[in-house]
């Protein structure tokens, strides 16, 4: 996010991601979590008494790509043991239509208590009722069950509710410990809940570049990019590379650098969520 | 922001804006303030003990227009007696370069206490050291003086500080009662402060469309658009119209609906800040 030509002294080092053992709450040894994900979890934990700590701002592109669009959303947890973020939306909402046209997005998450800001650039994946992959279907179902009855009700209204911030539920209930894709959650154990309507969409933000600004003393800043092998030899285009998903590119139509014509749709297949994200390279930026 | 085709029942009424007498703190009878501006001021007032209430998220378009970019900024007050919002930035920051290329922006301001969300779409104007209009020059100078010495210092560093959220000052000092363009502030009365360096930029968000979501009971939602005479007969294109500035269009190169080629620069002249914004039309949206 920061141009190297502006005189910023940047030291680049490829880190092997933070070991999963840092997360004491990890039930089992899963894949290693990137440092930035650990830092978000830590900031969330330190603000656990503040339900609004789970609120962040999600920016997309307007339907004609002429304007950015940004609204507050509620973090619904990490997708399984990955570093992909989940949110929910109504299929009749403005942002659903925008993401259908263009999956490129950036989230801004500011934690007032720890004074950490995370900017997460990536692609939005949408898991809807047409999803056929069992693991993705289950993730959508779990997210549905984790909502309060009142919040679920909005998706059955003839007109959409307030799509910007569906949180008539208790916010701290929104992103409680159970993850949207938690394997342990079975239909039998959960209380009886009617199935989600077609309007209920699970959103997944698949990160491609992270900017972490820590404003507490000492002030620090890091950027994280996928640790592609060619990164160390070609730092010039590293940010541009980060804008591309690291999974199967065959599934994805990424917007070209020469603008986004109105007729272009650059969507991502939800199955991209199943692809491993690999390791991350960290760039520490010290003014 | 909401498509009328999704079944939302919308009742449209053109209101003559809220009288300035609503604002009891108004020192003199100025121009009438739009209802949405009054509501923001009210939310700010109710959160006056929370310095982070002045934090909001500003979304712009990435240099290649492929991605939205969003970061937290600090509200620095209204520009004079207008409903234009001010922020500051460093000329070496990422967002400065983005706004130079494309002035289209949207701010998202969520007030946790009152549960009000304001989305403000419009054009960014930048007032820098080359500004020659006395009123605009003075607005930039006042914003500079309102900052703490520590925050001012960052603009003299060889590399930019943390441009995303310059707030090493006390946040409540950032947007205190004195406005950036306050006429009463004179150089003689203020404590001696060295003049702002060329890196110091006053940002002005000139609003073109507002979306106000109130999540407290009863939940309500309003949209505000410039009250153009043809609005009532052509609601179909009202949002598209709102994306265009209402001042002198001759000064402005607005991005066309057919995308933003990489070579296009659609900037706004800072003198647009001097143009009256006129009245606003309110659309109440009830699900």
Descriptive key words:
287 residues, alpha+beta, Pnp Oxidase, Chain A, nine-stranded antiparallel beta sheet, 6 helices, 16% helix, 26% strand, disordered N terminus, Pyridox_Oxase_Alr4036_FMN-bd (chains A, B), signal (chains A, B), Pyridoxamine 5'-phosphate oxidase Alr4036 family FMN-binding domain-containing protein (chains A, B), FMN binding (chains A, B), Split_barrel_FMN-bd (chains A, B)
Summarize the structure.
The structure is a homodimer of 287-residue chains. Chain A is of the alpha+beta class and 287 residues long. Chain A contains 6 helices and 9 strands.
Describe the structure.
The structure is a homodimer of 287-residue chains. With 287 residues, the first copy, chain A, is of the alpha+beta class. Chain A has one domain: Electron Transport, Fmn-binding Protein, Chain A (Pnp Oxidase, Chain A, Roll). Chain A has helices spanning 35-46, 94-101, 134-145, 149-153, 171-174, 238-242, and strands at 9-14, 55-61, 68-74, 85-90, 104-111, 116-127, 200-214, 220-226, 280-286. In chain A, strands 1, 2, 3, 4, 5, 6, 7, 8 and 9 form a nine-stranded antiparallel beta sheet that branches. Chain A is globular, with a radius of gyration of 19 Å. The two termini of chain A are 14 Å apart. Residues 2-28, 166-178, 181-188 and 230-264 of chain A have low confidence and may be disordered. At the A-B interface, β2, β3, β5 and β6 of A face β2, β3, β5 and β6 of B. Chains A, B: One of its GO terms (molecular function) is FMN binding. Chains A, B: Residues 1-27 form the signal peptide. Chains A, B: Keywords: Signal.
């Amino acid at each position: 996010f920061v141009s190297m030509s502006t005189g910023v002294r940047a030291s680049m080092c490829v880190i092997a991601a933070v070991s999963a053992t840092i997360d004491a709450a990890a039930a089992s040894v899963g894949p290693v979590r990137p440092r930035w994900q650990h830092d978000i979890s830590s900031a969330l934990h330190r603000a656990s008494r503040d339900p609004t700590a789970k609120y962040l701002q999600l920016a997309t592109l307007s339907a004609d790509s002429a304007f950015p669009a940004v609204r507050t959303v509620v973090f619904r947890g990490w997708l399984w043991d990955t570093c992909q973020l989940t949110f929910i939306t109504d299929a009749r909402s403005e942002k659903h239509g925008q993401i259908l046209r263009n999956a490129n997005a950036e989230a801004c998450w500011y934690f007032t208590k720890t004074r950490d800001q995370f900017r997460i650039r990536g692609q939005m994946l949408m898991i809807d009722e047409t999803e056929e992959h069992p693991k993705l279907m289950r993730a959508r179902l779990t997210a549905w069950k984790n909502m309060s009855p009142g919040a679920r009700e909005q998706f059955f209204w003839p007109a959409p509710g307030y799509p910007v911030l569906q949180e008539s539920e208790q916010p701290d209930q929104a992103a409680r410990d159970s993850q949207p894709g938690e394997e342990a959650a079975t239909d039998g154990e959960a209380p009886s809940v009617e199935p989600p309507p077609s309007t209920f969409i699970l959103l997944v933000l698949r990160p491609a570049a992270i900017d972490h600004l820590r404003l507490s003393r000492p002030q620090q800043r890091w950027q994280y990019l996928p640790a592609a092998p060619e990164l160390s030899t070609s730092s010039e285009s590293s940010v541009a590379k980060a804008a591309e998903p690291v999974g199967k590119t065959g599934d994805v139509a990424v917007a070209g650098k020469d603008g986004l014509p109105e007729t272009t749709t650059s969507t991502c297949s939800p199955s991209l969520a199943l692809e491993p994200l690999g390791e991350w390279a960290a760039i520490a930026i010290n003014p």
